[in-house]
Amino acid sequence: MRFLGLLLAMVAGLTGAGGAPAAKLNIIFVLTDDLGWTDLGCQGSQFYETPNIDRLAREGMRFTQAYSACTVCSPTRAALMTGKYPARLHLTDWIAGHVLPKAKLKVPDWQMHLPLAERTIAEALRAAGYATASIGKWHLGGSEFYPDRQGVDVNLAGCDRGQPPSYFSPYGIPTLSDGPKGEFLSDRLTDEALKFMEQNRAKPFFIYLPHYAVHTPLMGKPEVVAKYARKADPQNPQRNAKYAALIESVDDSIGRIRQKLDELQIADQTVIIFTSDNGGLILNNVTSNLPLRAGKGSQYEGGVRVPLCIKWPGVTQPGSVCDVPVITPDFYPTLLALAKLKPAKGQGIDGESIVPLLTQTGPLRRAAIYWHYPHYHPGGATPYGAIREGDWKLIEVFEDQHVELYNLKDDPGERADLASRLPKKAAQLRAQLVAWRKKVGAQMPSPNPDYNPQRGG
Ligand SMILES: [Ca+2]
Predict the structure, then answer these.
(1) Distance of CA 216 from the midpoint of ligand 1 (Å)
(2) With a cut of 70, which residues of the chain have pLDDT below it?
(3) I want to staple 293 with a disulfide (CB 3.0 to 4.6 A). Which of 78, 152, 349, 414 is the partner?
(4) What is the DSSP string of 243-274?
(5) Which CATH number goes with the domain that contains 319?
């Protein structure tokens, strides 16, 4: 019965009223910055209030094992735009990264912008007749690499900055005019998205809405901050009122977008994807990703596991939950598939379309997913690589070349390192990781001649 229903829904999706060919699907991709895995009501938070995102999850599909391509911002964004792993792009750290001249390893000479030669998802969709916009944080290079050079018709607020000087106008963002004094950035970006939807309702559109929230500096509307300050429980590691207010500003954004889709009567032809670019920041008690280990800037699950909710009207089963691991590069072929497009030959896409998961018609073909971060980060990472295959995750730490092996099904918090108990499994995964690095041409760090054990690392 379910399969029949799905089939009918998919057929219905191909034809509009009266049997006329339906308009192409609109795509709204909301990327939150630094939102952690448990930072939503639907992901178990007892503190943050996210009714609109929770409703999106209830009406669509929620992924419990979605991953960002990197533990920091820029590489994930590059992977989203290209469908390639950061390792293949050599864009492996947040731009411009930390410099630790005395560390044990010297980081490779990595790519600090997204090259114009890459065919971005915006370029691919625009070529197929989509109106395209990037409204929010870009963080993929200087002005010659801004979104309007990478396939978007409208760039608002996208620049080389990784965070806004202020969430209140005046913003200090070179590609966004200031609003009335005190206007809030998440609201303004949403206003701009609604305007773009109105102006382009007759065409298929792709709106990339990478909110600056919930990245630092933590700032919120005073009344919202006050609400969470009253509610904060010292026993709950999620208790930062300003951070909660930032999350609420993103939730408001989702609510307003959905209301506008209803008003414009295009909700049934618009796919909404909601996710984050890396795990939650736990430094200075910003948030907690428990039960996951650590947070942004670390090699553990807290650094890379992220929320993901997708509503594809008439196709995703309401309230469905998917536990298959998916990762940022998968969005590129998925978005192309939604627009009934395919990557060009020889484009070197690493991701795989997750349409079979969304339609519940089959598994993914690939066996494993990978990370490569030849850098240092205050979140805890030293240069490392990692592979996840099935329930297994292996982390290779380049400084001393030790490996750690975890069974994420039994041990999602990565407490019990099984590498010495299961040396064959560890060796097999490590060999796969090494082979993958070779395949994508990953850059490795090298011994640092200026290494000083007292000052490095
Ligand atoms: Ca980020």
Answers:
(1) 10
(2) 1-22, 456-457
(3) 414
(4) HHHHHHHHHHHHHHHHHHHHHTT-GGGEEEEE
(5) 3.40.720.10
Quick check: is 139 catalytic?
yes
Round to whole Å and give the CA distance between 47 and 243: 11
pLDDT at 14: 47
- Residues 383 and 397: their CA atoms lie apart, in Å, by 6
| Residue 377 annotated to the active site | no
Please give the pLDDT value at position 454: 86
Per the domain annotation, does 402 fall within a domain? no
* pLDDT at res. 16: 44
- Bridge-based pairing state of the strands 446-447 and 105-106: antiparallel
Distance (Å) from CA 20 to ligand 1 centroid? 42
pLDDT, residue 151, reads 98
What sign has the CA pseudo-torsion 51, 30, 206, 125? negative
Tokens of 318: 């309401």
- Tally of structural domains, the chain: 1
Q: Domain containing 343: what range?
A: 24-367
The answer to whether residue 246 is domain-embedded is yes
Q: Is residue 327 part of a domain?
A: yes
Q: Which residues are close to ligand 1, an ion, with C-beta < 5 A?
A: 33-34, 73, 277-278
- Position 419 in a domain: no
Q: What is the pLDDT of residue 13?
A: 47
CA of 74 to the centre of ligand 1 (A): 7
What is residue 18's predicted lDDT score, i.e. its pLDDT?
42
The catalytically annotated residue of 90, 139, 215, 377 is 139
